[in-house]
Amino acid sequence: ELKVEQNPLFLSMQEGKNYTIYCNYSTTSDRLYWYRQDPGKSLESLFVLLSNGAVKQEGRLMASLDTKARLSTLHITAAVHDLSATYFCAVDIKGSQGNLIFGKGTKLSVKP
Amino acid sequence: KAGVTQTPRYLIKTRGQQVTLSCSPISGHRSVSWYQQTPGQGLQFLFEYFSETQRNKGNFPGRFSGRQFSNSRSEMNVSTLELGDSALYLCASSPSGQGLGSPLHFGNGTRLTVT
C-alpha cells in the first residue's frame, strides 16, 4: 500500500525566514505533485515533478524530487504572509493521474 | 476557460437519506475524479471516471457510487448517509488521466453535513 508522509504537519514561520517541507512516499513512483489549499478553498496545483532530479521554482517556492530516496521537498525562501496555507504533496499510482495518494498536509502560518 | 464546477456548494442531510453531487469538468477534460476531505482522514480518493467508465476506485463502501455522462459531467451518489460521511467532497478533472503528468484541476467542493 502506498503511503505518503509529510513533515512537519504544522509549521509556524516568521516572515523572511527559510524552511523546507518534506514528503516521503513508500513505493516506486515517478510522478509527484504539490498543491496549495487556502482555508475554505479548493486545491490549487503548484508543481508537477515527473522525473528523478526534477526541480521547479515559482516565486519563493522551489520543489524537488529524488525518486531513489522516495523524497520530495518544498523549500520556502524568505517567507511572506501570503504563503500561509496548507500544502499537500501527492503521488499517483496505477499510471493514472486521477488516483492520487495525498499526504496529510502541512499547515503553514507565516507571522510578521 | 471555465474551471471545474461543483453543485451544490453546501448540503445538509439526515442520517439514512441519500445525496447526489454534481461536477462539470473543464471543457475538453475527459477524466473526472472524486475525493473526500475530512480533518481526520485528510484527502481520500473515491473513484475516477474516464469516457463514462470507472477506471479506478478507492477503498470506500458500496454506498458511494458515481457515474459519468457522455459530456464528461459526473455525479456521485451516497446512499444511506452516516454521520461519518460529513465531509468536503472535491471533484477534479484532467485531460486524459494517463501518463501525461498534468495536474488535477479541482472544483470548490460540496460541503456535506449529515445530522
Helical stretch tally of chain B: 0
Identify the overall geometry of chain B. Answer: globular
**Biggest interface found:** A-B, 24 and 30 residues
Biggest pleated-sheet summary of chain A? 6 strands, mixed
- Count the strands of chain A? 11
Terminal-residue CA separation of chain A: 41 Å
Low-confidence stretches of chain B: none
Instruction: Outline the low-pLDDT stretches of chain A.
Output: none
Quickly give the structural class of chain B: mainly beta
Average pLDDT for all residues of chain A? 91
Listing every helix as H and every strand as E from the N terminus to the C terminus, the arrangement of chain B reads EEEEEEEEEEE
Strand-residue proportion of chain A: over 45%
Kindly provide the radius of gyration of chain A, computed on alpha-carbon positions and rounded to a whole number of angstroms: 13 Å
How many distinct beta strands of chain B?
A: 11
Count of DSSP-assigned helices of chain A = 0
Order of helices and strands of chain A: EEEEEEEEEEE
The outline of chain A comes out as globular
Explain what you see.
The complex is a heterodimer of chains A (112) and B (115). Chain A has 112 residues and is mainly β. Chain A has no helices and eleven strands. Chain A has strands spanning 4-7, 10-14, 19-25, 32-37, 43-49, 55-58, 61-66, 71-76, 85-92, 100-102, 106-111. In chain A, strands 2, 4, 5, 9, 10 and 11 form a six-stranded mixed beta sheet that branches. In chain A, strands 1-3-8-7-6 form a five-stranded antiparallel beta sheet, with no helix packed on it. In chain A, strand 7 (61-66) and strand 8 form a beta hairpin. The model of chain A has no long low-confidence stretch (mean pLDDT 91). Chain B has 115 residues and is mainly β. Helix content of chain B is 0%, strand content 52%. Chain B contains no helices and eleven strands. Chain B has strands at residues 5-7, 10-13, 19-24, 31-38, 42-50, 53-57, 64-68, 74-78, 87-94, 105-106, 110-114. In chain B, the strands form two sheets. In chain B, strands 2, 4, 5, 6, 9, 10 and 11 form a seven-stranded mixed beta sheet that branches. A four-stranded antiparallel beta sheet of chain B has the order 1-3-8-7, with no helix packed on it. Chain B starts with a strand and ends with a strand. Classes of the chains: A mainly beta (112), B mainly beta (115). The interface between A and B is medium-sized, with 24 and 30 residues.
